[in-house]
Design goal:
The protein has 262 residues and is of the alpha+beta class. The protein is built from five helices and ten strands; from the N terminus they run βαββαβββαβββααβ. A hairpin with an 8-residue loop joins strand 2 and strand 3.
């Protein structure tokens, strides 16, 4: 049978999602080791979106095939019993054989957190990027609307991106101020490598006033990564939710990412 799982993790101490040949600590490796104990056989996971070193997940979705018969409760509680404190399973569902955590997804939502104050934070040091200059969230939001829709996102694509083409469709993009920080939310059918971090890196110069609002559209239309801003740090990025057809009956992660409320 095929099992789907909801996963959350603090990415600060992981070398990304994907298992590696080296002894690097990855989310996939830890999960596969824990679930293999519950299943009593080796487990190979497929995820909805591979996250980089330092990136967090509150709504990651994975699937695996198994011959073991376990209840939904047993997969979650048994897995959690063998996982480190910075990974947790939140739900389990048996799914049809044609379900695929990556290819069945209709859309994904990411959140990028920017701590916006002069002084550094002991608590947010691995959970948010920091900009010490004041950011105008409204200007960032206005500029970001140029990215909504189906576009060639070559200007927001990492050089090592392995996607076959750069066209993606952003369905929602919002930027808002929240206490001492600025929150960027982006929902799209799919994302390129470093796409959200590069969007944040382009919007921040607009927020501090170094670039006009129109600059974001110009960067998009150039289709040239070298003409865009820097890639924002990994620690501010969260995979917030993955959306699937209703027929699979999978939960959608709630917004469990903490905010900057005082």
């Amino acid at each position: 049978m095929r099992i789907a799982l909801g996963v959350e993790y603090d990415g600060a101490k992981f070398q990304g999602w994907q298992a590696q040949r080296s002894e690097a600590r990855t989310v996939q490796t830890c999960l596969e080791q824990a679930l293999a104990i519950v299943a009593n056989h080796p487990v190979r996971l497929i995820c909805a979106g591979r996250t980089d070193t330092g990136v967090h997940g509150t709504g990651q979705v994975v699937h695996f095939d198994t011959t073991a018969v376990r209840s939904e409760r047993s997969w979650v509680r048994g897995g959690n019993a063998h996982l480190p404190p910075d990974i947790s399973l939140s739900w389990s569902r048996e799914v049809p054989d044609d379900f695929h955590a990556r290819f069945s997804a209709l859309a994904r939502r990411y959140r990028y957190l920017i701590l916006n104050r002069p002084l550094r934070s002991a608590l947010w040091r691995e959970r948010a990027a920091r900009c010490y200059r004041p950011l105008n969230a409204q200007r960032m939001h206005e500029a970001g609307q140029a990215l909504i829709g189906k576009h060639n996102f070559s200007s927001f694509r990492a050089a090592e991106c392995q996607a076959k083409h750069p066209v993606r469709e952003i369905q929602e993009l919002t930027v808002r101020r929240q206490g001492d920080g600025v929150v960027l939310d982006v929902k799209a059918n799919a994302f390129l490598h470093h796409m959200v971090r590069n969007i944040a890196g382009v919007l921040m110069p607009v927020g501090v006033g170094d670039q006009p609002v129109e600059w974001v559209r110009e960067v998009l239309e150039r289709c040239d990564r070298t003409q865009a801003g820097v890639t924002a740090p990994a620690e501010g990025l969260y995979l917030l939710a993955v959306y699937y057809p209703e027929q699979f009956g999978l939960p959608v992660a709630t917004e469990t990412v903490p905010g900057f409320e005082r």
